Amino acid sequence: MLLRSWGWAVVAAAVLGAIPMWTGHTMFNVKDVPVATGCTLVTAGLVVLLTRRPGGPRSAAYVAGAALVVLLGWVLAMGTRPGIWPTLVASHVVAAALLHPRLRAGTPAVRAAGPLVGLVPVVAWLVLLAIYPAVFATPLTTLRESALSSSRFDERSGQWFYVPALLVGEVPLVLLGLVLVGSVLALRRVVGEVRVPSVGTAATAWLLVGVQAWTLPLLAVVRESNLYNGLRQLLFMVPAMALLATLAVAAIAGVVVRWRARSVGVAPVPLLGVVALGLLGPTLDQVRLHPYGYAFATLPSYAVAEAADTDYWRTSARELAPSVPAGWVTCSPALDGERRSLRRSLDGDEDCARDLIGPLSAWADVRGTDPVAAAPLGPTEFWAITAGPRRPGTNCVEVARVDRPGPLPGIGTLLGLPARDVMSRLARCELVLPAHDGGVLTFGPGGDGGELELGGWTAHATAAGIRLTGDRGEVGFTTAGSWAAGAELRVGLVAPVGPDAVRVRVNGTEVALRGSGTRLTAAVPADVLAAYGGGRVVIALERVAGDAPRLLTLELADAAGSRAGEGNG
C-alpha cells in the first residue's frame, strides 16, 4: 500500500523476520505480540482509508473492510493491554487530520471514512465492554489508570536513556540504522506532501507508520517510564520499524539504479551489500540461538555488565527439565552479601516445581529423564536454577546448562566475547541460612521472621501469621548457641489444632509435640540440633489432618530457659 509493490512487501516481511526480538517473542509472548498485531491492524486499516483514491466500484467495500480491520485491531490491542490507547488515539487523530482534505472530493463511500475514524473506537469499546465489563465499564478510570500504570509501573520512574540504550542493545545495528534513515525519509515525504497536497497519495500515510513506531517510545523517554525486561513492552513498534527500514532500503536501491543508469563513477553497490548483510547476519544469529531468538544482543551489549541478559523469561526450562531431578527446586535464587545462593527465590519463596506460573511445573513429566547428578542431594543441599549469564552463588556447583554458541563463532572469543550464550543453569547448592540472634520470631504482617522462611508458606496483609500452602513449610536460621543440653522448641499458632493434626521436624528428625490448641512445645536433643553443622537449624511444620495451620511465632530455648544465640549460661 505504501510502496505500491508486492516485492517491497516481501522485503518488509524479511526485515521484520530478521529482527530477533520480534521472531523470538512470537514463539511464546501471549501478551505483547497480540498488542503489536492489534496496533499494526489499526495502522493498516487507516492507511487503506488514506491511500484509496476516491471513486471506483469497490470504494464502499474498501472503506467497510478497512473499518473492520481497524475495529479488530482496537479490540485485540486494547483488550490485551488497555494502556496502549495513547498510540491508537494518536493514530486516529492523525488519520482524521489527513483525511479531511479528501472528504469533499470523494464519493459518498469515501466521505463516510471520516465519521468511521471517530466511530470505530466507540464500537471497539462497546465490544470490549461486553467481553470484559469489570474493566471497561468505567472508561475514564480505565484510561487514566492504564496509562499511569504503564508509565509509572510499581510506582517508580525509570531512566530517560533506557529506550535508546535498549534499541542499540536489542535491534541489529544495521537494521536500526535503516530504521532511523527511513524515519527521516518518511518525515520528508510527509512534509513535501503537506506543502503540495494531492488526493490519494501514500506520502502522508507514512505519518501513521511513524506514530506506531515512535509515539509511546518518545513518551517513555520524556516521562522516564519504568520499563523493564528489555523492549518487549514496546514490541508494537517493531512492525512499523520494519516498514521504515524497508523505505530506507527502497531509497538505497533507487540510488543504485540511478547511478548505474547515469554511469557516474562507481555505483554504490557495496551499500546494498551492507543492507544484505544487515538482513543475513541477524537471521544467522537466530539460527544460532534457536529457539531463543529473543535472547539476541548486539555486540556493544556484551561490553556492559549483565546487559546481554538472555533467558529472563526462562523458556529454556523445557530443555533443562530432563536434567532436573525430582523434588524441591529454587528458581532464580537470591544472593547474600557473600554471593552465596539462598534457598529463597527472587520470584517468591515457593518451590518453582510446584508453582503453577513458574517455569518448571509444566514439565514435570520429563523431569529427571536424563539425570546428570551422580548422587542424590544431602540433607543440607538443594537444587537451584539460574537464568541468563549470571552464575550461581559460590556455594553452588553447576551440573547442567542450556546454552548456544556465542556471537561471531570462531572469532568472537578473540574479541573478548563469550564462547557460549548461556540461557539457564542447574546447580547443586549447599544450604546457607541467615543468622538469628535469639528471641521469639514472629511471622506474618509486621513480623521479623520473613527472611527465615524457606518456602511452603503464604501470607496475607490482613491475616496474622503465615499459612501452609501445601502439607509442609520450613523455617531455617543459623544460631551461635552450643545447645549441649538440648533445647525446647516453642511453636505458636493462630488457631488451635488437635494433638495429632500437625507434625514438626527439626533438621530432618521428627520431635514429639506436647500441648494442644495454639501453643505447642517439643524437646529437641543436642545431636539433632548439631546434625546439619555450622549452627544450622531447619524447622519443618507438616500438616497431618484438618485445615492448614497458620504459624505465628517460633522460639528455640535451651534446657535452662535461655534463647537461641545466648549460649547455655
Question: What is the fold's blueprint, element by element?
Answer:
Layout: H1 6-17, H2 20-25, H3 32-51, H4 59-80, H5 85-103, H6 108-111, H7 113-131, H8 133-136, H9 139-151, H10 162-170, H11 173-195, H12 206-223, H13 237-262, H14 269-289, H15 317-320, E1 329-331, E2 333-335, E3 341-345, E4 381-387, E5 396-405, E6 420-430, E7 441-442, E8 457-458, E9 466-468, E10 472-478, E11 487-497, E12 502-506, E13 509-511, E14 513-514, E15 517-524, H16 526-529, E16 536-543, E17 550-558
Parallel strand pairs: 1-4
Antiparallel strand pairs: 2-3, 4-6, 5-6, 7-17, 8-9, 9-17, 10-16, 11-15, 11-17, 12-13, 12-16, 14-15
Structure description:
The chain has 569 residues and is of the alpha+beta class. The protein is 39% helix and 17% strand. It has 16 helices and 17 strands. Strands 7, 8, 9, 11, 14, 15 and 17 form a 7-stranded antiparallel sheet that branches. It has a 4-stranded mixed sheet with strand order 1-4-6-5. Helix 3 packs antiparallel against helix 4 and helix 3 crosses helix 12. The longest helix is centred in the middle third of the chain and has 26 residues. The N and C termini lie far apart (87 Å).
Shape: elongated
Determine the strand fraction and express it as a percent band.
Answer: 15-25%
User: Number of DSSP strands?
Assistant: 17
What is the overall pLDDT average? 87
Count of helical regions: 16
Distance between the termini: 87 Å
Fraction of residues in H or I helices: 25-40%
Quaternary state of the chains: single chain
Q: The biggest beta sheet, please?
A: 7 strands, antiparallel
User: Which parts are unreliable, with pLDDT below 50 for 5 consecutive residues or more?
Assistant: 562-569
Summing up helix and strand content along with how strands pair, one would put the structural category as alpha+beta
| Computed Rg | 31 Å
Transmembrane segments: 33-52, 59-77, 83-100, 112-140, 160-187, 199-222, 234-257, 264-284
Keywords: Membrane, Transmembrane, Transmembrane helix
